[in-house]
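Write out structure tokens for Gibberellin 3-beta-dioxygenase 1-like.
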Amino acid sequence: METYQKMMNSLAYQLLLLMLKWLEVSEDELNWKLSMSQDALLLNSFPPCPDPKSTIGLAPHTDSLLITVLHQSHEGLQIFRDGFRWVTVSPIEGALVVNLGNLMDILSNGKFSGILHRAFVNQIRHMISVAYFCYPPIDSQVAPFAKSECPIYSSLTVKEYLEIRAKHMEDALSVIRIK
């Protein structure tokens, strides 16, 4: 597990660098260093269910942090598309799914937004997923890197955002949006 976590950390770091480059942000402009980012690994088990229509694997949500790198053993991930329908994300052998979180939405000033997603169970297969989460240190300041435009989110610490998220759930970004 430790080797897997190190590999995911390296991948997440490279993805963050690419996104920051696209946003024209240098690593030096961060008030926290990417190499000091925190991480966590979450193993999920979704056993077969005799009545999957009456069971939720994982309720609809967006991810709170910067990046989530997900491996799923079988179908079970769905994303909410076009504002009205759930679409199954079929696993591709050897591929990983990358979800962007709310902190990335804040940093990118809304350019890199997360997507509403959920996990569902089925009658036949036991699904296992491994989610790797990457985020800045809890006391780090997070603010939009908006050089040529007005920021759409208030600046706050990761801890403050997570407290707002715990209280307001999916409405947390709306709470910190600058009116």
